[in-house]
Amino acid sequence: MRKLLLVIDYQNDFVDGSLGFEGAEKLEPIIIERIEEYEKHNGEVIFTLDTHQDDYMETVEGKNLPIPHCIEGTDGHEIYGAIRPYSRHHLRIKKDTFGSKDLVEYLTYNQFDYVELVGLVANICVLSNAILVKSVLPNAEIVVNSKACDSNDKEMMEKGYDILKNLHIKVI
Fold first, then answer.
1. CA dihedral defined by 11, 147, 153, 125, rounded to 10 degrees?
2. What is the pTM of this model?
3. Rounded mean pLDDT of 45-54?
């Protein structure tokens, strides 16, 4: 069975930077535990990085969320804390929007039986990428680990989890 752990956007700006929120830092030991588990059992680990440029405020996202974040080349773009060294040993996929078209392409040519998603923000990028993974790997077991995900908007997070369950994506 081929297993994949997707660490979604666990970056400085989402933990303690421009879009950071209380509690996001508490995911760090849980995510490290998941990474080490996959490494121990020969699973694959991929990190996504929300990646924007200096023209962020002119983009559609910038007009709807006018808070510059994850600008490439800044500290806010980097993987957070003690997780950063792990990311150096695994594929890192930059994405300029919520879901990753490069992740879709990678999964098209690299099939997995089980995919677990962890990271930030649960009701935006985790949700978007979980749906994309389900679209590319319709017969794989897709799991969102709610203990390793969070959001500044708990109500929207729970609504997002309900949507995922309705799409046959497990929320554990």
1. 50
2. 0.96
3. 98
